[in-house]
Amino acid sequence: MRVDFHTHIIPEDIPDFVEKFGGGRWPTLEKTCSCGANIMVEGKVFREVTDQVWSPEKRIEDMDAEGVDIQVLSPIPVTFSYWADGQQAEEMSKIQNDFIAETVKKYPDRFIGLGTVPLQDVEVSIREMERCVKDLGLKGIEIGTNINGKNLDDPDFTKFFEMAEKWEVPLFVHPWETLGKERMPRHNFMYTVGMPSETALAAASLINGGVMEKFPRLKVCFAHGGGSFPYILPRLDQGWKVWPHLRQTTELPSYYAKNFYFDSLNYDPLNLNYLIDRFGYEKIVMGSDYPFLLREIPPGKVVDETVNLTDEQREAILGRNALEFLNISVKEEMKK
Asked: Is the pLDDT at 332 greater than 90, yes or no?
């Protein structure tokens, strides 16, 4: 079974929140043709997209062509809208969560859903997380790497992580609003340099800030192979050793990093082998970033090209690990 853990989706008829609430930062979808659109932010084209991003039927067509059995659907990070009023952003979250849940319900053998929550208001986020998993049947929550410049170890978010652990809600951390973005416009460095660096900062914050020590059963998966985090982990360990006055954990960062999951989207068997050597093949889930330009085609290509994997390891990375991360019975999924 081939499960693509990292894919994004948006409703075709997402409301115009700029018109409803004011403020230019709400993303809107402007159709350019029957099979294409622009995601607009502040009157500018943020991203050109095709019907792959809203049509489950088109996605299934692509999945069949590329050998993917199941996609895990998550919102596009630009829709997080953490900058907005919490209750207004809750409306944006609900629209997407309902759409994802409806898509899964329509095609239960092809899709699994993740929700989104307005983390700028933790109480509202907890309320929507509960609705996602208990009412809508979504299997986890996608969150950003920072919330309005606050790292994930900020005390404001402690209650959210506490409830995610209590309710056994897996979290998928995706970069957005990258650090140093003012230096990134040329060469699209936001996507190739900024996002990996931002992801590393988020992972390091969860560890060094004591979140993973406080909530050891919390399930967290990082996009894009964890960005640069796996490669700076020895440096984080060294910092922990030489600056004892800064320590907020009882163990080295690498001790807590063993609990993290990572998608396989790093394009190179050398990098995938490094992830496996450092964290174990059980912690790697296949992900492609469908349907965007930087996606891996076909999904799982880097896994297929990593020739030294055993059949058991390959099978786990391509599908089983994702289902286990999402607390889904592998046997039940195989019966569908």
From this structure: no
